[in-house]
């Protein structure tokens, strides 16, 4: 499935709900379904700076695709981590670097987060794209 196809599915899932309390509940459900991140990856170099809560991302290359794993100590943020991983994990560095993550705006996520959580979301996306750039640079060596 392409990045855009998965984004469109997420937009449809969120469109089923009018009330943001229901959308928050959906995010929490996503967070609860996130596989726990191995403790060995919960290191200072994997923490996302700029997040109100603690968020970790780990990335590795498998067969030319980046596999992301992540976690957070906040249940709502964990749901956001799940969404980002769901959309970007399993794609090539190029696809990740060039991805337009339009689902964030379309589902109204940014406008329904506190300013610090919104900044954290931007930091998470930036870090995932930086992983894409780093793996792309390694490929080109």
Could you name the key traits of this structure?
Sufe protein. Chain: A; 6 helices; globular; two-stranded antiparallel sheet; 53% helix; mainly alpha; 141 residues; single chain; 2 strands
Helical coverage, percent range = 40-55%
Question: What is the molecular shape?
Answer: globular
Q: Could you tell me how far the N terminus lies from the C terminus, measured between alpha carbons in angstroms?
A: 28 Å
Overall residue-averaged pLDDT value: 94
**Rounded Rg:** 15 Å
Low-pLDDT residue intervals, each spanning 5 or more residues: none
Helices, by number, come to 6
What can you see in these coordinates?
The chain has 141 residues and is mostly helical. It contains 6 helices and 2 strands, in the order ααββαααα. It has one domain (3-139): Sufe protein. Chain: A (Alpha-Beta Complex), CATH 3.90.1010. It is 53% helix and 11% strand. A two-stranded antiparallel ribbon has the order 1-2.
Short description:
This protein has 141 residues and is mostly helical. The chain has six helices and two strands, in the order ααββαααα.
Write the layout of secondary structure elements.
Elements (H helix, E strand, L loop, with lengths): L2 H13 L4 H13 L22 E8 L2 E8 L2 H14 L4 H6 L4 H4 L8 H25 L2
Antiparallel strand pairs: 1-2
Helix pairs in contact: 1-3, 2-3, 3-6
